[in-house]
Structures are given as C-alpha cells and as structure tokens.
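Complex record, two chains
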Amino acid sequence: MIDLGRGVALGMSRLARIRLRGRRWLLCALALWLLPLGARAGEALVVLSDFSPSYNELLAAVREHATHPIRVVTLDRLKPDDSGTEVILAVGTRACERMLERYLPQSKLICTFLPSSTFTQLERKLLPRGSHAAVSAIFIDQPLARQVRLARLISPAATTLGTALGSNSLALRTALEQAARAEAFELSLVELEQQDNPMQRLAPLVQGSDLFLVVPDSAVFNRAISRWVLYLSLRHKVPVIGFSASYTEAGAVASVHSSAAQIGRQSAEWLDRLQTGGDLPRASHPRYFEVSVNPLAAQTLGLDPPSAQWLRQKLARTEAEG
Amino acid sequence: MSNRILLLRLAPLLTLGLTAPSLQAKESPHLSEQDFLTEIPEITSATRLSQKLTEAPASISIIDRSTIAASGAQNIPDLLRLVPGFQSFHVSANKFATTYHGASDDFPRRLEVMVDGRSVYLPLLATVDWTSLGINLQEIERIEVVRGSNVPTQGANAFMGSINIITRPPALLDGGYISATGASMNTRNLQFGHAGQVSGWNYRLSGAHEENDGSDLLDDAMKRNYLRFSGSYTPTLTETLWLQAGVDRGYTYVGQADKLDEPFHKREHDANHQSIKYQYLYSDSGTLQLRADHHYLDLQLPSAGFAAVQAVLNEVVGAVPDAAVDEFIALNAPRLDSEHGTTHTTDTELQLTDRIGTLGLVGGLGYRYESAESDVLLQSGQVSEERWRLFSHLDWAFAARWSLNSGVMYEESSEGSDALSYRHALIFRPDGRSSIRLGYSISERLPSLLERYGNNTVYAPSGLFGPAPVAYDMNTVAAPELDPEKIETHELGYYRAFADHQGYIDLRLFHERITRAIGSYYLPAADLADGRVAQNANRFGWENQGVELQLKQPLTRLLTAVLNYTYTNTRTDTWIHNKDLAGGTMTFQDAITPEHTASIMFNWAPTPLLNLSLMHYYMDRVDWFEGGLREGYQRTDLRAARRWPLGGGRELETAMTIQNAFGPGHEAFYRYNLFDRRVWLQLTLRHD
C-alpha cells in the first residue's frame, strides 16, 4: 500500500512538472510576440542576484573588460521583457535560476559565478531534456584536476591524499578518484554525515594522509570541518590544500581559487564573443585563477613551497599543454 | 532622552530581527557561490562577528604566539607594551597593571580582560588581578586587543578597550612541554602543559609552580601553584562543546613602594573558575552559542596584630590600655593592606550569529551576577549586583566597497542604573587588503561594586572618646547613587595588509571625551577626626586626542620589525576633589597620560633553529594616580633562543632574555620600585 502510494505521488509530481514545463514554453512563445521594444540592439543584459561585494567586484571587472555596452539589473528590478534580451549574463545562483526559469529560445544565456554542481542541477530541472537552449556557464569552483595538481606541486613525494566529502560533494567522488590517479595519489576518503563526530572521523584520516585536500561542500559543512581540519593538520604535520584565499589565510598551506574579478573578466570575454557573432562556449571552470600560499603555515609544517606565482604559472602551463 | 528610548526599542528588535529569518530559513537544495565564499573564522573581539581586520569597526592589535615567544615577556601586561596606546607597569616585582591611554592608578578600572571570552574583571577590586589567572604564556594562542571603547560589544568594563586572551585550542596539538625558568629575583618557575584525547574529548592540561624572592629593595616575593583544564567535544558535525576549569593558589606580597619604611604584606589568593560553552551551526551561515561561566577569588591579608595596632593607636591618640587595643581589633578587624575579600562573578549568555544577504548580524542576551565581601573595603557587609545585557551588532555591506557597522549594548543593573552604548563605523575598502574607517561611539560604564559600595570606617573603642565606641574616622562612604561613566569617541582609522600578509600598517586618529568619571570627592563630616569623608562621585572628566601607529614590516625574509607609536594629548577638566574642604583641586603636571609611548621589536631567525630578538620600549613622563609623577624611561630587552631537535618528536629549547639590558634602572609606578636589569634563563623540553 505504502509503495503504491509513493508511486502514485511520484507519478503525479512528474505529471505536474511536465504540465508546468508546457506552460512555461507557452509563455515563452507568447513572449516572442511581445519582444522587448525597449532593449537596445547589441546591448547585453547583466542580471545580478543582488548587490554584494563579490557581485560588485565581478561587475566592475565586466565593465572594465567588455568592449560592448551592458545594462545591469538586480533580480528585484527585473522586468518580464528583460528575458528576451539577446545576450544575458546571470551572476550568481539565484540570477541563473531565475533566468533559466524565464529562458526564451532567442536568448543566449551565460550563468556565471556559481558552483558547477548547482548549474548542472538547475539546467536539468529547468530546461526540457534534449533542448538546444543556448545556455552555458562559468563556474566558481576549480576543476578537481587543478586542485589535485596543486597538491602534487606542493608535495612531490606524497603518496596518500586525504579528503572528506559531505552530502553535496559526494557526487564528485568518481572525478576525484580519477584526478588523484592521474597525479599518482592514493586517495583516502571519508564521507561525513550530520551525525558524525568530525574529530573522530577526521583524525585517523588526516593522520594517515600525506596531504589533505578540502573539497567545497555546503557552507555549513565547510564551516563545520574547517577548524578541525586545520587543527589536525598542525597536529599531524599534514599540509592542507584549500579552495579559497580565506582557507589559506586561516592555515591551509596553499589554495587555488578564482577571484570575482577574474571570473568577471572571463565573463566579459564571453559576452564580447557572443556580441560579435561568436559561438557560445561550453560550460567550464574558470580560465583565470590564482594560487595563494601561506608561508607561515608551510614553515610550521617544515615545508618550503614554491612561490604562489610559480605555482600558478606551472598549473596554467600544464593545462595549456594537456 | 528620546534617542535613548528609540535605541532601547531598537535593541530588542535587532535581536529579534536576527532570529526570525534564521529560524524560518530553509536549507537550499544545492550549493551556492556563498558556499565557496565561506569565511573561515577570524577575529571576533570587536563585534562578535567573524571579521577580517579590514572589516572591523575598531582598531585591533593581535599579539600572536610567535610575538609572545620572541618578546621574552614574563607576564601578560608586559606583552601589551607591544600594543599602541597601552601603558604597562610593574607596581611591584610581582604586581602588574596595564592601562589604555594612561589616567590610572595601580588598579586600572576601565579595561575588560577576558580569557576565552570569560571576564576576569574583579568587582571587588574593580580591576584585574594578573597574578591569579592560572594561565602561563605558553598556553596562549593569541591575544586580541581592541583599542578604544568596546562597550557596545563586551559590556561596561570595556570602557577604554578590551583584551581577549585566547588559549591554545585543546584539539590543536598533541604532546606537551615542561619548562623551567630561573635567574633574576631567585626565580624558580616550572611550567608544564599536555594535550591529548580521551573518550572522544580533546583536552589540554597545564599548570605551574612559580616562585621568586622579589626585588632587592622591597620585600615583594611571590609563590603560586596553578592547574588548568580545557576540553572540547564534537558530538556531531555541527555541534561543539567546550569545558574549562582551573585553580590558582599562592601568595604575593603587596604594598606601596612610595616609601622605603612601609613594609609589604603577604596577600594569599585562592582562585578558581569554571566555564562551559556550546556552539551549534544551525544553518549555512547561522551559529547559536550558549555560554556560562563562574569566576571566584578569595584574597586574604593577615589581621593587624596586637603590637601593630597598639603602635598605631599610641601614635595617633597616645597611650591606650591593652583592653582598648583588643576592643579596637574586635571593632575594626584591621588588616595590613586593603586587598582583602572574596568575590564571585557568574555569567550566562545566549548569542545568535547569522548572515542575511549583505547583512552580517549578531545579537544576544546576557545575565551576570556579581558579589563581593570584604571587611576592609566593604565594611557594611556583602554586596551583590545583577546585570542584564542585550546586545546586537550589524555589519552591512551596502555597496561594492562600503560597509556600515553598527553595534548597540543595553545594560541594566539591579542597583538602579542602566547604560546604553553604541558604535557606528563607516568603512571604505578600496581593495581587499586595506580599509579606511570613520567611527563614532558613545559608551557608558556602570559603576563597579567597589566604586558604588566601598566603605571603610575606623571605630574608636569605648572610653577613648566617650563611654561607647564611636566612628572616629570614615575613610570612605558608599555612593549607591553613582551614575555610569561616559565616553564619546571619534576616530579615523586606516589599515593595510602588505602582500602575502607578511606585514601591515594600522593607523588610528582618535578623539575621546570622558565625562562623569568616578573618583573620590571629600565631604565635610564634623564628627570625625579629620572632619571629612571621601565618597565616590561622577565629578571628573578629561579629553584625549592623538594618533596610534602599528607597523609590521618584514625587512628581509628572516628579519621582521614591528613598530608601535602613540601620541596622546590630554586635556583634563578641573578636578575638584575638595580634600581641603575648600574646593581643593588635583593637578597632574600635564601628564595624566604619557604624551609619547613607543616600542619596536626586531625578530631575526638566521637559521631555522635560532631566534634572536631585540625590543626597545619608551614611555614618556606620567603622573600616575596614587603612584605619582614618574619620568620617562627607555628600556631595551634582548632575547636569544636556540632549539635542539632530539629526535622522536622531541626538542629542547634554551632561551636567555635580558630585560633592561643597557640600564639604567627606572622607577616603575612607585618611586622606590626600581626596574633594573633582569636576566631570565629558560629551558623547555617539548614532545609531540
């Protein structure tokens, strides 16, 4: 009985979703008739999730590097006919979600500054399967291969790479294993759940690792484990590779990350490309990135890592060659 | 008055505003960019929010572990010489004090001092007793010093600033150390610490035996033993529990070194503390924290013996019979010094921290119960006070490079007064590494139990001035109607971190106006021997303006310099103490605050195992309340430390520190308290 009930419920839910999608496409078709008369030709629309220091930094970089005019709106000021703009840059998860919901086929949409996993989920949820929507993205996160490569550069002799995954990063497990194999690491991994005692789970993991790689998960997960990972790193003299400048400042030996300005620059280049008739690039991780190194943390762990600049150039060169 | 009412209404709204959206917030089904922008916790002392130094609404100095080691400091106040605006002094060989912007006696009243967020301010003495904290320097991870009034965040005691001593987290390191220090003053210190895990708990256990004979000139020895436990437990991914407890027992000889013939007296102390903190990360950005702690201190000074009392009575009123001496002792319970009594502080607090869009928010509610008992300072019997506090702070990044920080604290005392304090700071960040800050604050400081209820009367035995005992002399009477002190501050700050966070510059221009400051005022009392009695009153005030500079600059990869400088121009109001009952005033020879205070530290690590440092300190002339006018002095300290790896995760460190290496000795606080050359040898064995 229970199974039947669930099945029926699930079936109705799917049906409702199909109906919803049908309505959305009908709306899109109507909107085609009502194309925005106010939109100026050649002007790209930049939709910000809101005004925050990071979005503003990204926007400043877009303004600096874009050679074509842009018009900026925040989500709360978005008008219905804005969705018809030919080229749209949606900054942040919320802006991407909204613009995907209102997507019109004549538009080319770039979502930027959002996690890769989120974009995949949103695309799957909001665009019809098999649609040829002109939608792409620039992610905020680094490719796992880049992070693992940095780990190798920091510690060339290390054999075991430790990491912890939460419910949001669990899907990366296979990719992580591949990246570790490519750099000749043996991957040691724990999956942490809400009810786990993080110290008890992480302590043996860090102790048995030569390096620890922090993979970004939800903010609460990141906040919950950061303190313990950094403490254990010091306790067991195991360097931590982080994913943000903040992590490096707090005690990770090195991190690879892209600033909002760097992602803004790449977004501007994509906008220009579209506005000059170019193709929409495939969704990708940031092209521009930087490496931060914490010399004090390295010194404490008895390491003498190369400079941040050398590491960045080495990573860029390896990617260009490969 | 209408502003006050408005703000009073605003405070709870801010706190409620914080909780409402958080409790309603639902977890996002997927990651957002904010997950990648998560800030790893940084300094929290200025606002309770986790902030970078470029985001804080106040100037903050961090004394980190490497600075503590390199400084060769033997006590915590000595470390504060490395913070702009602070003046540290030795009241005697084993009694220390620190104040911000001078204007202090040997019991600085206007700084909040905390150990891991637990206040160690003593309502009995209205100050901090640095010799009974139960913590050795090796247990300190860092010290966060907020320069300037921090009442909106930490409450009334943080009137001029706050100091938060953050100890080493139990989960940070395994292993331990044992350390022996000796040399000057016949010092015999043995300190130890150990960290490990048991039953899922991470713990640190530390303690010490410390003993010395004091200075050559004064009989000011000390001896103490202390033990401290700190533990943390993480039952789930999002919950953490901390426990701390400690005990500190021993003695310090106390007295006034303004005369050579005044003996010092043995003051025994028995201190203990307990603290529990629970933290729960209830959402991506929200944290709930519950804290409860208790601090106890018992100070015992010997009663004045028969002979001593008889000698005093003979001197004051002429020869008296033995029975009158006995009766005098029974009536007055005279002590050899005033630092005597018992005090409790119990504090509980609920705090919520969250972020809503561009708004960082923290709010909470606290309750503190303080009690004090002393037959010298509080002769009328035990006194107590309940204080409730409601606080809130918001950090609003309202534009790309701009943010507004606003904090408010409302405190209500059971003793019939309340205090409202707030601070606003507009911060401009031209880039990620620097900030320009314009700040304004008004803070109020509730009087301490001692200031409000301090009273001391000398009763003459029967037969001396009448058939029955009479009040012969009243030194002080209680002042239950005292109002809060008030400080208004304007400041302009600039902070810039250099590349790779290897150095920084921190500049602060300030103007402070202190009004309603509490001090003794003499009232006529015709019945008493000297015809007057002192009572605390809100009658005093002064104004400071000046500049503070802190500059940390790596000179080479192995050599770092830290420079601190403060210029303070102080203008005092006319301080009428009425000691002569004719409107008499106090003068401070234009030196209530030292005009110039400076320190510089060079730290050089020529090899990974060798560490050399040189510190030079300068403090201008200052007229200390109680201590008197002291001329400016210079002092140079040298330290050399060498580590010897022993294998198996063990290492030995030998260190030699020479304080005031090039002399001459200077008068510290009191005329006869000479700070001469001192040498310390330290041997430390560490193991992983």
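Note: Chain B touches chain A through 44 residues (CB under 8 Å).
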